[in-house]
Inverse folding.
């Protein structure tokens, strides 16, 4: 349907997305509001919005402001008597984060040198293993969470 601008306003579903809609032929200029890709981009945007809207639980969206007010209301005034119990867990958290970051930097730097093409001791044995460890470690987040 070349040039059918009103097809943008038809109900869009992922199955009925038509990407071949074009603007009427016009002389191109940098400030032109209707380029060759504008209608396709709008069509994809509307289709994605419809797709997301169908899967949104709107009760949670409409209840969010009340939940936010409730959360802030429970935060103020703070209970300072409870703060003394938080120092040890806070210190443990800082230690775990610091040690984890330091360990990650050391292992990451070593793996980077082993996986680099120009610094690896063995291109046939060590480099593929180091690259495998890097790729596998990137997959762990998806597997766990």
């Amino acid at each position: 349907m070349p040039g059918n601008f009103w097809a943008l306003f038809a109900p869009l579903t992922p199955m009925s997305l038509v990407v071949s809609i074009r603007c009427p032929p016009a002389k191109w200029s940098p400030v032109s509001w209707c380029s060759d890709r504008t209608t396709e981009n709008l069509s994809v945007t509307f289709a994605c919005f419809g797709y997301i809207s169908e899967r949104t639980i709107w009760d949670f969206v409409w209840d969010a402001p009340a939940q936010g007010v409730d959360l802030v209301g429970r935060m103020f005034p703070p209970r300072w008597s409870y703060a003394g119990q938080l120092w040890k867990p806070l210190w443990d958290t800082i230690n775990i984060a610091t040690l984890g970051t330091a360990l990650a930097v050391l292992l990451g730097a070593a793996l980077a040198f082993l996986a680099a093409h120009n610094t690896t001791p063995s291109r046939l044995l060590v480099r593929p293993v180091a690259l495998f460890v890097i790729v596998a470690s990137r997959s762990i987040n998806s597997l766990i969470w």
In short: The longest helix spans residues 87-115. DSSP finds four helices and no strands in the chain. Residues 56 and 62 are 11 Å apart (CA to CA).
